[in-house]
Design brief:
Largest interface: A-B, 44 and 44 residues
Oligomer: heterodimer
Helix content of chain B: 40-55%
Largest sheet of chain A: 8 strands, mixed
Shape of chain B: elongated
Bound molecules: guanosine-5'-triphosphate, magnesium ion
Strand content of chain A: 5-15%
Structural class of chain B: alpha/beta
Radius of gyration of chain B: 20 Å
Strand order of the largest sheet of chain B: 3-2-4-1-5-6-7-8
Low-confidence stretches of chain B: none
Helix content of chain A: 40-55%
Chain lengths: ~290, ~280
């Protein structure tokens, strides 16, 4: 991992045991490579390394007996701080139902995460209702209904011939009648560059007035993560992010990219396909994982 | 990169940036740029106009080693079996629908095997694609053994004298040993029924995936003998540059690309077009 590579770098450049600013520069190059290999976006890496460089040439590193370890500590701290900060709590509206909208690219894990969030809320003695607003993907509604059945959570649907805005409008109405205190809206996957579909999301937002708009993003996403996150955030104003498939072996640099470019908190992570595989986001664990 | 530029360190840095942002991968990019730097020196190339064709050629040579790689190697006188594998959500089921349509249009009799017996709505999803493409789907109940479904589908395809059998499998992450074992079993069951099958095992890769795609190609290759790649969601802004490293290291060719969510959004891979898009 990075620790070994920094050791190698130090072996080559170390003279009399004292580390110079030039030595730190070589170490920062290793950090940069490690972050790029972890899929952190090119520009985010540039900004991050510039931020850290200053601390990395500080006394704590230059005077340390283990400068390699010290650099890692500095980088790890900075990464953790960057990705952490806010609590991963879900919003609660003063006037129920609290409305949560799930958005993101095709196949990211929105429908599955919608089910997981419903279970999470159930465990907290809430009564969520799911709204099937994906009218495009074959058997999308069926997929959500099967999850609802597994969890014993109501699913509102008007089939795939009705406009999603109307589905959401009637779904929220139904949730109020049934005294459900949370509404989770599953939307169709779409490209951030599909104007018509992004406009549809905007219309759903206008109708539903959500308390949370969560961008669901696949942890194995590469450089494109910044484009996707930035675009969804600019067009909708996200409230948070759900990072899925973290049970894989990807380093997950997309987490840093998304946080850096939107400033929005990663609230939950998906750790599997089952409905109980949802965990709060731990920035320190993510930092170590990214650094490899 | 398209305007006339002096070939200097700034030029190479900008090139690195473009390629890394296309998910080509930092190691592959450094190798390629070092090569290019040497060739520019050797051939005394001083402007970008002279270097760009060299660069394009380099990439195209990696991606399109020989013409026949881009087509599918299926027998023309008996049943051809294609197994679709890959991680969760990449587009396996959708790609099968599109490919069924392609084969049907070419006059072939196609059958689909609903090998994802795990995920909610998976069988229904494939059935809708079967309807759209006008082909039959062999399925069991949800929760049944995927190997049994595929076995059943082979029997049905042979007795109905089908030309092509497309087998869907559940998405799975490559680091899940039990799921990769399950996939290996499906592969072995196919082999046992038809010794030279599956004639193609296609790894479906999402163009938005970063460096993890290399690990996917390696481990799926070990579990199920991957013969080619379908690169999906190229209609987005991701470039899918990771396929260059995959071709370089594992000699796996991209056979098709997915360009959307409709029945006809599947195209044979064109190396030149792909490389031009990398620099767009
Ligand atoms: N291993 C793992 N698989 C996941 C996770 N989250 C979702 N999946 C799987 O990823 C695939 C896609 O999930 P979906 O919920 O259908 O994704 P989606 O975003 O709703 O897809 P579209 O509606 O087509 O845009 C399914 O196979 C899920 O089981 C996770 O955290 N870990
Ligand atoms: N834009 C775009 N979307 C695609 C493409 N291929 C598939 N999709 C979408 O990606 C999502 C996932 O597709 P699926 O076919 O369910 O993927 P899968 O690999 O079978 O998923 P699992 O079985 O859950 O692992 C769906 O919303 C598809 O419509 C493509 O080429 N372009
Ligand atoms: Mg969905
Ligand atoms: Mg599928």
């Amino acid at each position: 991992g990075l620790a070994d590579r920094l050791q190698e770098t130090l072996k080559k450049i170390r003279g009399k045991g004292k580390v110079t600013e030039a030595d730190v520069k070589s170490m920062m190059r290793e950090v940069r490579l490690a972050l790029l290999e972890a899929d952190v976006n090119f520009k985010v890496v540039k900004d991050f390394v510039n931020r850290v460089k200053e601390r990395a040439v500080g006394q704590e590193v230059l005077k340390s007996l283990t400068p390699g370890q010290q650099v890692i500590k500095v980088v790890n701290d900075e990464l953790t701080q960057l990705m952490g900060g806010e609590q991963s709590k879900l919003a609660t509206s003063a006037r129920p139902p609290t409305v949560i909208m799930m958005v993101g690219l095709q196949g990211a894990g929105k429908t599955t995460s919608t089910g997981k969030l419903a279970k999470y809320l159930q465990n907290q003695n809430r009564s969520p209702m799911l709204i099937a607003a994906d009218i495009y993907r074959p058997a999308a509604i069926k997929q959500l209904e099967v999850l609802g059945e597994q969890l014993d959570v109501p699913v509102f649907s008007l089939g795939n011939k009705e406009n999603p805005v109307k589905i959401v409008q009637q779904g929220i109405q139904k949730a109020k009648e049934e005294h459900c205190d949370y509404v989770l809206i599953d939307t169709a996957g779409r490209l951030h560059v599909d104007e018509a579909l992004m406009d549809e999301l905007h219309q759903i937002k206008q109708e539903a007035n959500p308390d949370e708009i969560l961008l669901v993003i696949d942890a194995m996403t590469g450089q494109d993560a910044v484009n996707v996150a930035q675009s969804f955030n600019e067009q909708l104003e996200l409230s948070g992010v759900v990072l899925t498939k973290l049970d894989g072996d990807t380093r997950g640099g997309a987490a840093l990219s998304v946080k850096a470019v939107t400033g929005k908190p990663i609230k939950f992570v998906g750790m599997g396909e089952k409905m109980d595989a949802l965990e709060p986001f731990h920035p320190d664990r993510m930092a170590s994982r990214i650094l490899g | 990169l398209s305007r006339y530029r002096k070939v200097d360190e700034d030029f190479f840095e900008e090139l690195e940036e473009i390629l890394i942002q296309a998910d080509v991968g930092v190691e592959t990019v450094m190798e390629l740029v070092d090569d290019l730097r040497m060739e520019a020196k050797k051939n005394k190339i001083v402007d970008s106009e002279g270097l760009k064709p060299l660069l394009t050629e380099k990439f195209v040579d990696i991606l399109a080693k020989s013409d026949e790689e881009e087509t599918l190697n299926i027998p023309d006188d008996r049943l051809g079996v294609i197994l679709f594998v890959g991680v969760n959500g990449v587009g396996k089921t959708t790609t099968i629908g599109k490919m069924a349509h392609l084969f049907k249009n070419a006059g072939k009799k196609v059958i689909l095997a609903a090998g994802d017996t795990f995920r909610a709505g998976a069988i229904e999803q494939l059935e809708v694609w079967g309807e759209r493409a006008g082909v039959d789907v062999i399925k069991h109940k949800p929760g049944s053994d995927p190997a049994a479904v595929v076995f059943d589908a082979i029997q049905a395809a042979q007795s109905r004298q089908a030309d092509i059998l497309l087998c869907d499998t559940a998405g799975r992450l490559q680091n899940k040993k039990n799921l990769m074992d399950e996939l290996n079993k499906v592969h072995r069951v196919i082999k046992r029924e038809i010794p030279d099958a599956p004639h193609e095992t296609l790894l479906v890769l999402d163009a938005t995936t970063g460096q993890n795609a290399l690990s996917q190609a390696k481990l799926f290759g070990e579990a199920a003998g991957v013969t080619g790649i379908v690169l999906t969601k190229l209609d987005g802004t991701a470039k899918g540059g990771i396929v260059i490293a995959i071709r370089n290291e594992l000699d796996l060719p991209v056979k098709y690309v997915g360009l959307g969510e409709k029945l006809d959004d599947l195209q044979p891979f064109q190396a030149e077009q792909f490389v031009h898009a990398l620099f767009a």
